[in-house]
Amino acid sequence: MAALGLFGLATYVTQQRTKEIGVRKVLGASSLRLLKLLSGDFIKLVFVAMVIASPVAWWAMNQWLRDFNYKIDINWMYFILAGMGLSSSP
């Protein structure tokens, strides 16, 4: 559901910036540069959401898992890897 919301927001922003994209393309901007320009704001929002959600998710998972007979620990590496996966996607 969140991906659908991000897709809708990206579509809206792209429609609002159509003239800017056209001018930049005419002046010689590459498609990769335009992609970085449009996705930069979204990457920042996703990073802020990850910084806020990771500690909450870690705490909630620890609270839930401590009631089981076979104890496991949630490592912070899982959250770091998830963040790296998010930042590497276009």
What is this entry, summarized?
With 90 residues, the protein is mainly alpha-helical.
Note down, in words, how this protein is organized.
This protein is elongated. It starts with a helix and ends with a helix. It is mainly alpha-helical and 90 residues long. Helix 3 (31-65) runs antiparallel to helix 4. The chain has helices at 2-16, 18-26, 31-65, 76-88.
- Give the topology string: H per helix, E per strand: HHHH
Radius of gyration: 19 Å
- Helix % is over 70%
The biggest beta sheet, please? none
Number of helices: 4
Number of strands: 0
Shape: elongated
Topology (SSEs and partners):
Blueprint: H1 2-16, H2 18-26, H3 31-65, H4 76-88
